[in-house]
Every structure is written in C-alpha cells, then in structure tokens.
Design goal:
Blueprint (H helix, E strand, L loop, with lengths): L12 H13 L2 E6 L5 H16 L3 E6 L31 E5 L11 H6 L2 E6 L10 E4 L6 H12 L5 H14 L10 H11 L5 H9 L4 H12 L2 E3 L5 E6 L1 H5 L11 H5 L7 E7 L5 E7 L5 H7 L3 E2 L3 E6 L3 H11 L1
Parallel strand pairs: 1-2, 1-3, 3-4, 4-5, 7-8
Antiparallel strand pairs: 6-7, 8-9, 9-11, 10-11
C-alpha cells in the first residue's frame, strides 16, 4: 500500500474494492479525460491506460473534442498510441473510466458514450464533482487526479514503470504548481520521490511544460498584457483577454495561450486574476485564479463552470465586457 498523499482520503474502502473488481474482470476498458486536457487529466488517463495494457487489457483512450489534437505542451507524454479520435470511441462501453472530469459536460462529444456505459468509474479530485458515475472515486483533498490514479494502480497491483511515472509526475507537478500550492504535503513529496525513483527525467518534463514556446507566443503575450486591467477595489481584480485574431496573427493554436493566466496572477494588488481566451469556435474560455481571499470555484460554478477554490474556469458566449460584468457581480 502506498503512503497516502490525500491526507487520509475520502474515498471509502468499499468503493476502491469495487473499482478493483470491475477493472480486474474487464477485458476492454474505455478511458476518457476532459476536453482541452491538461497534464493531470491526460497524464492520469495515459498512466492508467499503459498499466492496464501491460496487464493484457484492451484499452481505448480519448477526449471529446471534434478538433481532436493533443496540446503541444503535452506531446512528450508516453502512451499516446492509446488515443483514438472520438468517432472511434466505443458507443456503449462495458466499462468506462473518466479522469479529472467534474461534470459530464466536460467530456464534450463523449458525454453520450458515458451515459450509455454499463459501468462508469469517475476518478477525480474536484470538490465540484457531481458524482455522475456509477462508481465515484472522488477525493477533493487529493492534490491531483494523478494521486488517485496512482492509488488505483497500487490497489490493482500494477507496477509503475518510467513511462507511467512520467505521466503521473506531470499531473502531480502541474496541479501543485511545481509544489508551491497549499495542497503540497509531505505525502505529495513522498509520491514524487516514488515516481522519481523510476528514473524519469524531471528536468525534461519541466522544460516541456514550462520552458518552451514559439516566438509568436511572446508577441501575443505582449499584446494581451498591453490591455490588462487592474481593478483594486474589493478583493482586487486583474484581467485581460486573448482574441482569435491575436492568435491568428502569429499562427498560434489555442492551447499555446493557457499559461498567460500564470503571468497575470502575479499582480500584487489583486487577489483574483482572470484571462478570457477566445477559442476557435468563438466562445470565451475563462480561466480564474485566487490567492485565497475569494473562492473562485463558487463564482465559476454560478456561471456554469467549476474547479478549485484557487483555480477554476467557465465558458461564456457573451461579449467580454458582459462576461466580466457578470463575474464581477458575483465577487
């Protein structure tokens, strides 16, 4: 049994036992993570997928976007040969598992597949999780979904090799903010040590996640920061937006602007940071961060989204000013 990085954990033992039974008896397992996957979502899914395949299971993995494309920052992850486009995903899986998905809508076009699954195991650490599975392995106290993925592999008796560990480590290091967030506990570091002991290269992972970007990103970042707004009243709010036109001018795909929120959030005068990013369909994907004075998950949930108290998001189909007016009113 691994040292528990979840501070005790809130998943009942009987649920873990049932999950082990379902997975052990299944010949085919369909895995899915949320749309616009981050390192925790994709990494947890691929880690479990590779370990199950090594045990002889037939594994299918995907995420529900019509424009199916792994973000460039995550293309270093092993196990991507498991991925299939949503159109090739089982329509009615016998056993389906989701990773880092708090609500069924975040499965995108795979939400109907989940609804038709005979058994649906939800593996997640969001407090806003709606419990949409037939079995929910949900622990809001977990630092990352990767923590729960490692626990599942341990309970299944599946070894964690370097490839599996690389995916889990990417999820752990990103969701803890490079071990800077309050979710970083001694148990989290113990998990990191276990993963490092497989021989993975933390320097290479860090370079892929944070230290690479095309030149066009710098030009877009400059334009976005030039229009940033600081509203010091109340908790303090700093916000800006990225348009499709901004990205198109430099041929920059949507996933390349995900990290802008981490630049904006550094503002000393603001507790809350917001970046609105226009996606390829014209919708605004809104990322929010809090330094602790505001529970942005509650605000985002009221606007149809969700997440964590200090990091959450939602989708808006309204103009920027109206979206920010609605957000501001809820602060």
């Amino acid at each position: 049994m691994t040292s528990d990085p979840r501070g005790g954990g809130s998943v009942p033992g009987r649920d873990w036992d049932r999950a082990v039974g379902l997975v052990s008896s299944a010949a085919d397992v369909a895995l899915a993570c949320h749309i616009s996957p981050d390192a925790d979502a994709l990494g947890s899914m691929l880690a479990v997928g590779m370990a199950l395949r090594a045990r002889g299971k037939r594994v299918t993995a995907s995420f529900g976007e019509r424009r199916f494309r792994v973000p460039r920052l995550l293309r270093f992850m092993p196990g991507q040969d498991l991925l299939v486009e949503p159109g090739s995903y089982p329509a009615s899986p016998e056993l389906m598992m989701t990773f880092d998905v708090p609500v069924a809508d975040r499965l995108g076009v795979l939400a109907p597949n989940a609804g038709k699954a005979r058994e649906l195991i939800v593996v997640d650490h969001h407090a806003s999780n709606t419990g949409f599975g037939t079995l929910n392995l949900v622990d809001p106290g977990a630092a990352a979904t990767a923590v729960l993925a490692e626990e599942l592999l341990d309970r299944l008796g599946l070894p964690v090799d370097r490839a599996v560990a690389t995916c889990l480590y990417a999820g752990l290091v990103t969701d803890t903010g490079s071990f800077r967030h309050s979710s970083t506990t001694p148990e989290v570091h113990a998990m990191a040590a276990r993963l490092l002991s497989t021989g993975l290269n933390p320097e290479e992972i860090a370079r892929e996640l944070w230290d690479r970007s095309p030149f066009g990103y710098l030009r877009v970042l400059g334009a976005v920061l030039d229009r940033v707004v600081l509203e010091p009243a109340g908790p303090g709010l700093v916000w800006t937006f990225v348009t499709r036109a901004d990205r198109a001018a430099y041929g920059l795909p949507y996933d390349e602007v995900e990290g802008i929120i981490d630049v904006v959030r550094r503002t000393d005068e603001a507790d809350v940071a917001v970046v609105l990013k226009e996606d390829d369909d014209g919708a605004w994907q809104v990322s929010t961060r809090s330094k602790g004075g505001v529970d942005v998950a509650r605000v985002c949930a009221a606007l149809g989204g969700g997440g964590h108290a200090k990091a959450a998001g939602f989708t808006s189909h309204l103009p920027v000013e109206q979206t920010m007016a609605d957000f501001r009113a809820l602060l």
